[in-house]
Amino acid sequence: MEAKIVLGVIGADCHSVGNKILDYAFSQEGFKVTNIGVLSSQEEFINAAIETNANMIVVSSLYGHGELDCRGFKEKCIEAGLEDVKLYVGGNLVVGKQEWEPVEQRFKEMGFDRVYPPGTKPEVTIRHIREDLGIEDLGEQYEMRSIS
């Protein structure tokens, strides 16, 4: 299976550095990435996933309003026929300092398959993409690059 990923920053968030780092890391891994950029609505993610026949949507949010921006996302994916598309979300998803476990749980209850706290290395997400899509690791052919 090939990883076809729609990547972007949701809502009114315009933080682009993490988005570009993930785009680079995923592309270097051989994943097919469609980066819709910053200030993206749920509908833009969904439309891009339909147009590219994506099997994964990776949502980034750093400005603390990810919880508001992501509400109802899974339901809209299901309505659009994307019930099998994996949903990942990561970044600074909530306002203020909150314990991570309850935050992660809330996003999982919203239908996200994986939820990442701020500072998660791309290598972690890449490993999860491979696991969730059943993609064989390239092993020795792949040399993990340092991205920071």
Automatic annotation (TrEMBL):
Domain of life: Bacteria
Enzymatic reactions: (2S,3S)-3-methyl-L-aspartate = L-glutamate
Keyword Metal-binding part of the UniProt annotation: yes
Annotated metabolic or biological route of this protein: Amino-acid degradation; L-glutamate degradation via mesaconate pathway; acetate and pyruvate from L-glutamate: step 1/4
Keyword Repeat: no
GO biological process: anaerobic L-glutamate catabolic process; L-glutamate catabolic process via L-citramalate
Annotated binding of adenosylcob(III)alamin, by residue: H15, S60, S61, L62, N92, L93, V94, V95, G96
B12-binding domain ranges (all copies): 2-140
Cofactor(s) recorded in Swiss-Prot or TrEMBL: adenosylcob(III)alamin
Gene Ontology MF annotations: cobalamin binding; metal ion binding; methylaspartate mutase activity
EC number: 5.4.99.1
Keywords carried by this UniProt record: Cobalamin, Cobalt, Isomerase, Metal-binding
Family named by the database record: Belongs to the methylaspartate mutase GlmS subunit family.
UniProt function note: Catalyzes the carbon skeleton rearrangement of L-glutamate to L-threo-3-methylaspartate ((2S,3S)-3-methylaspartate).
NCBIfam families: MthylAspMutase, PRK02261.1
Name under which the protein is recorded: Glutamate mutase sigma subunit
